[in-house]
Amino acid sequence: TPDGMRSVAGLGGGGGGVENVRGGTGGGSIQVVCNAFDSTGTISTKGNNGQANNACGGGGGGLVFICCTALISQGTIITTGGVGSVYGVKRGANGGNGLIIVKEIGL
After folding, report:
1. With a threshold of 0.90, does the pTM exceed it?
2. Residue 101 CB neighbours (<10 A)
3. How many CB atoms neighbour CB 72 within 10 A?
4. Cβ-count burial of 53 within 10 angstroms (0-12 exposed, 13-18 middle, 19+ buried)?
5. CA-CA distance, 89 to 98, in Å (whole number)?
6. How far apart are CA 13 and CA 27, in angstroms?
7. Tens digit of pLDDT for each residue in 72-98?
8. How many CB atoms lie under 10 A from the CB of residue 1?
9. Which listed residue, 12, 63, 88, 102, has the most CB atoms within 10 A of its CB?
10. Which of 92, 97, 93 is nearest to 81 (CA)?
11. What angle do CA 2, 11, 58 make, to 5 degrees?
12. Are 49 and 13 in contact (CB under 8 A)?
């Protein structure tokens, strides 16, 4: 197990809520452990928005963890929190953006 992998296993974004109404669920957890990591696309996690008309908070952005021996990437990594919902003059807080960890290790 690469150093640090056990400390992030299973972590994702937290959910937001108010009283007994659920807010947005948190973003997921993406973990990649490999030799050479080569990406030209987008890797993303996103918290869901708060439930409409309830002033609920948005979910947290989630986690992207990449551990590799060689990083060859021109892609994009994004973790975004969900938007809080509005009820009258009340507004739930937006979920925080998530965590991105990229660790390049030698053999």
Report:
1. no
2. 15
3. 10
4. exposed
5. 28
6. 5
7. 878 899 999 999 988 888 888 899 999
8. 8
9. 63
10. 97
11. 150
12. no
